[in-house]
Amino acid sequence: MSTPASPSLPRARAVAEAAGGVFEAPGRTGSTNADLLAVAPDRPHGSVLATLDQTAGRGRLDRTWTAPAGQALAASLLVRADLDDRDRGWLPLVAGTAMRDAVTTVLPGARDGGDASRPVAADASATRTSEPRVLVKWPNDVLVDGRKVCGILCQVAADGSVVVGAGVNLTIPADALPTPTSTSLAVAGAPGDAVGLGDAVLSAFTTAVLEAVGALVDGGAGAEAVRSHVRAACGTIGRRVRLELPDGGVEEVDATGIDDDGRITIRDRDGRSRGVAVGDLTHLRYA
């Protein structure tokens, strides 16, 4: 069996190298996160490993992530920055928002039908009257028209750096999508082939993550702007959701905001509010 050719992703390569990182694009690999984790201590901040043929990917909560060869992007970005514990906890949310912004750039009409840049308070409870085509389901699933197009997985390397992994469905046709709640950029109307779409999305994603990390390191107004943008892009806020907790508990609650630690804040049927750091959410309807 011949080895797949490495995908040509010139824009993404240029972004990584401009940031001082190393860019690698194997034709096929088991897991870009595993590969980058293995070499992270020897790679500089901003390094990227990407492929269009990943055979053993993982998602959040130890789920598998699979996609047909040549029709999905798997990419991992190395973040090595002087972040405090709170801001490190925001990285998965920042990554989801960065991918939401990247996906928006390649979808016709994605900027219409709602202003995703409007401010959302940390303890918002107002009902959304409209929404964009592309939004984030807390903490970092990217949805297009309510269906998942991308998932994010952040993992800590041996040296304390963080590998931010993303899997994006690029050109998978509707009849080959992995789940009934999935979509792909092509199904959603994005023009172009997988390599072109992957290059556009990865370059925009890498740029956005690195800029946001820089702002978090600097602190002050820039860091607050990053957190405000994450809240504004989160389509979970203001919705009734089904919350599945790690202990097996299931609740229907109202999602009211994202607190300063990056937790989703919820209000239960008895009116009690709390923050949740880990859980699986399903959007049910507007609260």
Helix content: 25-40%
Q: Give the C-alpha Rg.
A: 18 Å
Q: Which parts are unreliable, with pLDDT below 50 for 5 consecutive residues or more?
A: 113-129
Major sheet strand order: 1-2-5-9-8-7-6
Number of helices: 5
What is the β-strand count? 14
What is the CA-CA span between the terminal residues?
A: 53 Å
What structural category do the secondary elements indicate?
alpha+beta
Q: What is the H/E order? A: HEHEEEEHEEEEHHEEEEE
Q: Average the pLDDT over all residues and give the rounded result.
A: 90
What would you call the shape?
globular
> How much β-strand is present in the residues?
25-35%
Sheet with the most strands, sense and barrel status: 7 strands, mixed
Please describe the structure with a list of short key phrases separated by commas or semicolons.
single chain; 287 residues; alpha+beta; 7-stranded mixed β-sheet; 5-stranded antiparallel β-sheet; 5 helices; 27% helix
Q: What do these coordinates show?
A:
- Helix content is 27%, strand content 26%.
- The protein has 287 residues and is of the alpha+beta class.
- Strand 6 and strand 7 form a beta hairpin.
- The N and C termini lie far apart (53 Å).
Give a quick precis of the structure.
The chain has five helices and 14 strands. Strand 1 (23-24), helix 2 and strand 2 (48-51) form a beta-alpha-beta unit. It has 287 residues and is of the alpha+beta class.
